[in-house]
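re the bet — no i am not wrong, look at it urself. input seq straight from the record:
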Amino acid sequence: MAEEQTGQERTEEPTERRKQEARRRGQVPRSRELNTMLSLLLAGLGLWFLGDAMVTQLFQITEKGFSVDRALAFDAEQMPVHLMYLMIEALLALAPFFVVMMVAALAGPLLMGGWSFSLEAMAFKVEKLDPVKGLGRVFSLKGLLELVKALIKFVLLLFVTYLLIMFFERDILTLSALTPGEASSRVVNMLITALLVLATTMLLIVMFDVPFELWNFNKQLRMTRQEVRDEMKETDGRPEVKQRIRNLQREASQRRMMQDVPTADVVITNPTHFSVALSYSEGRNAPTVVAKGRDLIALQIRRIAAENEVPLYEAPPLARALYASTEVGDDIPHDLYLAVARVLAYLFQLRRSRPTDYVPRPSDLEIPENYNDLMDEEPQDGDE
């Protein structure tokens, strides 16, 4: 047990993996009281709907069995065939009721934890023959609770059965004065009433037993904190390994990003802390962010841009707004279209102008106020 090995208590709720492993071993919540209640209920309902037809067919089969021709009675070959035919008829008459009872037997496990088939649960285990462990289970808290529950169920059902006998006393005493058909019909009616009353009584027990069994099953599957941590390491990997994978993924992403910087039309800078490389081509709705970075990465973007003659444009508020509101591969936000369009238009005019021409630099690039909060946020992991 985990408590004995680590000294920790099972205080953590079971994980999905823990529940799946328990189901694989055949450990699912079960309630015998629920199965009993459903069997009584469906038996009563089955007799209610099928009882008259079954009684009629069984009477006809009985009549055939007792009204045998003399020649058939002394025929050693035909008599067994006749008896077999009557047995088949009886089974066919009872078959619908057997189907109802089979449904009752399957419905309980389905409602309580679902069906589970496990070869591991059926395997022979030597420890199950250990008398010490057997006595431990008998005298455990769960064993005591099962004993109390069985005593309560016994007393309650015994009391209800006594009331039913008192209620049907006169009907039982007058059965001998009735014809076989009338007596059988009355017995079936009494049996239906008794089954439904007992099922209702069992329902009172089930209302307490099912929540208890679910709670007890969940309690047995609870885990220590160390078990939860160990499972997380097995399923998600160790933290240092995950961090190493994230670092490698970030490095690969940065390498791809740096390869796209030469394709940019402009790099907007802060001038030293932020750099955002933008690319625009005809047919697109808006310029696209092909690279962005902060501090050392921003410096590397500017260096690659300079080596590939990509224009650098210093616009601190615009650079911070683009950096805070976009990811690599995104189109720029629509409310920054105007500011970026003025920058691109300025660079386009510079490329087409003559050395002696004067091209006025855009001033007061308007950045919406809603970007102020974004620009004040701390950088996310990987932005440094």
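see?? Confidence is low (pLDDT under 50) at residues 1-5, 378-384. told u. also DSSP finds 16 helices and four strands in the chain. so pay up
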